[in-house]
Specification:
By secondary structure, the protein is α+β, with helices and mostly antiparallel strands. The protein has four helices and eleven strands. The strands form two sheets. Strands 10-3-4-9-8-7-6-11 form an eight-stranded mixed sheet. Strands 1-2-5 form a three-stranded antiparallel sheet, with no helix packed on it. The longest helix has 16 residues. The chain is globular.
């Protein structure tokens, strides 16, 4: 499976996809909403403010082109690393060093994930949704979300799928581009 930004300057390949993914997930948290507002890409939020993410293992990602277009944002000094592109402002992936998780936003998948992966398997953080989220959306992270994601995470830990990550240097913790950490004012403006 290949992924790419909206204009196609950034491209990557996901090996072993879709075999090693828990499927389509939607998060309604205020961080995901703030990030997309900050990028001025709230067009990617669903009607209730949800962000669809389809995870892969970092070790299964190979950047094919456009590395020079990547930028990184963190909502706080300890926040997750959120990579997007400078060429067309496409959010690409949310990830963290040493974790077997690369949560690619739905918008970067180039073909057939709806047919390949079927419907959304889990939704979380409904307390931040705009309006009434789809039926069954929990207020926080519930047992269903845990059961959906934990086998993926455990397998990733056992198989050491967090490294190498194309988003971090060989040390596994230094991001390949210096992250911009949002100030309180920038974060407030993104709400």
């Amino acid at each position: 499976m290949e992924i790419q930004c909206k204009c196609g300057k950034f491209r990557a390949k996901l090996r072993a996809f879709p075999n090693n993914t828990p499927g389509r997930l939607v998060c309604y948290c205020d961080d995901c909403q703030s990030y997309l507002h900050h990028l001025k890409r709230d067009d990617l939020l669903d009607a209730n403010g949800g962000t669809e993410v389809i995870p892969a293992y970092p070790a299964d990602v190979k950047i094919l082109s456009g590395l020079e277009h990547l930028k990184c944002t963190r909502l706080s000094p300890n926040g997750i690393f959120r990579f997007s592109t400078s060429c067309c402002n496409t959010p690409i992936v949310n990830t963290h060093p040493k974790e077997p998780w690369a949560g690619f936003l739905r918008c970067v998948y180039t073909a057939g994930v709806d047919q390949t992966l079927g419907p959304v398997r889990s939704r979380i953080m409904g307390r931040y949704a705009k309006g009434t989220p789809p039926a069954g959306t929990p207020e926080k992270f519930n047992l269903r979300a845990f059961v959906t994601v934990m086998p993926f995470m455990l397998k990733g830990k056992l198989l050491k799928k967090s490294k190498p990550s194309p988003f971090f240097a060989e040390d596994g913790v230094t991001p390949i581009v210096d992250p911009h950490i949002l100030s309180k004012a920038e974060r407030k403006a993104s709400l």
